[in-house]
Amino acid sequence: MDKKKITVTGATGYIASWIVRDLLIDGHEVRITVRDKTRTDKFQHLLDLEKQNSGKLLVFEANLLQEGSYDEAVKGAEYVMHTASPFFLDDKTDPKANLLDPAVNGTRNVIQAVNRSKSVKRVVLTSSLAAIYGDNKEMSDNGIEALDESIWNTTSKLNYNAYSYSKTEAEKAAWAMAEDQSDWDLVTIHPGFVLGPSLTKRKDSTSIGTLIRILSGELKSGSPNLQFIFSDVRDISRGHLLGAFTKEAHGRYILANESGSLLRIAKIISDEYGKRFKVPEKTVPKWLVWLIAPTIGLSRLFIKNNVGYPLSANNKRSINELGMSYTSLKDTVLDHVKQLEADGII
Ligand code: NAP
Questions:
Q1: What is the CATH number of the domain that holds 337?
Q2: CA neighbours within 13 Å on the CB side: how many for 199?
Q3: Of 119, 133, 339, 125, which is closest to residue 240 (Cα–Cα)?
């Protein structure tokens, strides 16, 4: 494969670390952005990966909230993979400052750098299934059998599902800027809830933290029947590379596989490990979850609109156009548990 120059934003993150790894293995020049270049502890794993592989790593400092800060990292690159965005589901303090502004203004900043570069041919944006739907009940409300790329999230707001709103608005901003020019094209990647082994011992990334909480016994008295559509972090990385390097790729790609509740994750773990982890064994009735919702940081409206509704997504575009194949949820979960064990986290 030709050696390419690729900028990856948010390289310290759970997903981006895998992307950088895969690009370095393929021998590319990878220009990563981090918030603070002096915090080498956050990207030492990537410096190590550079030593073990043929690719080249260049480190730049950039912040989503700072105009112009991506210019240097993007100048001269042919591809930009924009993954950086705050990912947490429970901001109750200031969702505009903590989620919306970095997601939307950050995307604009990165794309302005792309426009100024005159070298970039394609931008791959890490969007989300959260930009496709807001609440689980929308599928049955709208008579949809499986979510697909034609659907947009129209229900999330700053004061309700703020993370989903931030991802939707960021993606809209990216498409608006893509349509305004003809130097580069845009591909958006839509993972579900991502699990799978992490390349670092980091615990504060939402995906990793969620599995640690399940394993730690936090839900041992039961879990709500809240369905997710899951993705494997290694598949998501591969999907970014396919989205960038498949010439004909265009538009939005759902990269998600199996659906299920947290109880399904728990069952995969207990089938393998028996009673070693205090994972939930039963579902908490919806009325009870509704009752205690405020005490566990969820709104009653969220419980009403989400608990007990099935969820599924159609990933055929990614299979037919990108050649994606998917890891089973069982392998994703067990490989993730093994990594947490090997790294002494659980
Ligand atoms: P993560 O581990 O929390 O990584 C987030 C990255 O964004 C980190 O590198 C973080 O830098 C960076 N970032 C946050 N705020 C920033 C700011 N103001 N300026 C510059 N960088 C900033 O999350 P992840 O799970 O890998 O998610 C990566 C992307 O995938 C996000 O766009 C997320 O919305 C999307 N996504 C994730 C999932 C999932 O289940 N994980 C599902 C769908 C979509 P620091 O290390 O400095 O904090």
A1: 3.40.50.720
A2: 24
A3: 125
Q: What is the pLDDT of residues 135-163, one digit of tens each?
A: 999 999 999 999 999 999 999 999 999 99
If you measure from the C-alpha of residue 318 to the centroid of ligand 1, how many angstroms do you get, rounded to a whole number?
22
> Which domain, by its residues, includes 168?
5-342
Can you give the pLDDT at residue 291?
A: 87
Interval between CA 286 and ligand 1 midpoint (Å): 31
Task: Specify the number of domains making up the chain.
Answer: 1
Mutate to test the pocket of ligand 1, among 15, 124, 129, 164 (most ligand atoms within 8 A of CB): 15
Ligand 1 cavity residues, CB under 6 Å: 10, 12-16, 35, 42, 63-65, 83-87, 102, 126, 128, 167, 191, 193-194, 205-207
125 in Cβ contact with 189 (< 8 Å): yes
Q: How far apart are CA 132 and CA 32, in angstroms?
A: 28
pLDDT of 1 reads: 64
Of the pLDDT bands very low, low, confident and very high (cuts 50, 70, 90), residue 177 is very high
Q: Give the residue among 208, 179, 214, 171 at the shortest CA–CA distance from 193.
A: 208
Please give the structure tokens belonging to residue 27.
Answer: 């021998």
